[in-house]
TrEMBL record:
Lineage of the organism: Bacteria, Pseudomonadati, Spirochaetota, Spirochaetia, Leptospirales
InterPro entries: AhpC/TSA (IPR000866), Thioredoxin-like_sf (IPR036249), Thioredoxin_domain (IPR013766)
CDD domains: TlpA_like_family
Thioredoxin domain boundaries: 53-212
GO molecular function annotation: antioxidant activity; oxidoreductase activity
Pfam hit, one: AhpC-TSA
PROSITE patterns named among the record's database cross-references: THIOREDOXIN_2
Record field: transmembrane: 6-24, 36-53
Keyword match Transmembrane helix: yes
Protein's name in the database: Thioredoxin domain-containing protein
Record keywords: Membrane, Transmembrane, Transmembrane helix
SUPFAM superfamilies in UniProt: Thioredoxin-like (SSF52833)
Amino acid sequence: MAFDFYSLNFPLLGFLLVLSMNLESNSRIRNVIHRFFLYFIFSLSGFYCALSEQSNLGVQEFQGITLDGQSVRLSEVKASRLILNVYGPNCVPCIKEIPALNYLYQEMQKDPKVQFYMAIDPSLFFDDSEVMSEDEMLTKAIPLVKDEIQKYKIQVPTILMKKPFRVSRTNSIITGTPETLLFKTKPFVLYYNFIGPISEEGNLERLSIDQKILFFKRMAGSS
């Protein structure tokens, strides 16, 4: 039977509460009404907390292709933890973050339970992406991404993402770049989201003691 919030008799509940406040001569009845009212409030709160649970907005469907055309479905990654850094072209904070990403990737490779990818929304490369087919967009984006990788010396394995993965301020879980998503894979669930660059530190020696880097490694399960 479905729960109908609007069918609740709030005037009656209010009347009972006011009545209990005026029953000075009968504390037992007053206590019973108070307990009933509190039980109702806590029950209602629990109901709405349960309804607020989200399904991670379709992350189980995230998939893409590598630069050599291999398909990757994120929910099928074998490692128990997955790091997905979202990169965008002409994104200055993304470029400043690359030394930190390269450092983290080299560190994470030592841990077999962690998989690290850089994800790119191919539509960000084109002004007319809405009139392009997905296959056309991916084909045209691959050489552009390769140029970015060579130019900025990106070491993290890169995936060009397919729909429903998109960077959008209005209808996506990823609202901008850079952004780094942390997943547990068994079951596949998003559990942490870093907005903005993890660190813009470029010195290798300082990266190893950078507090942002150390915090990220702890959250990623590899510290």
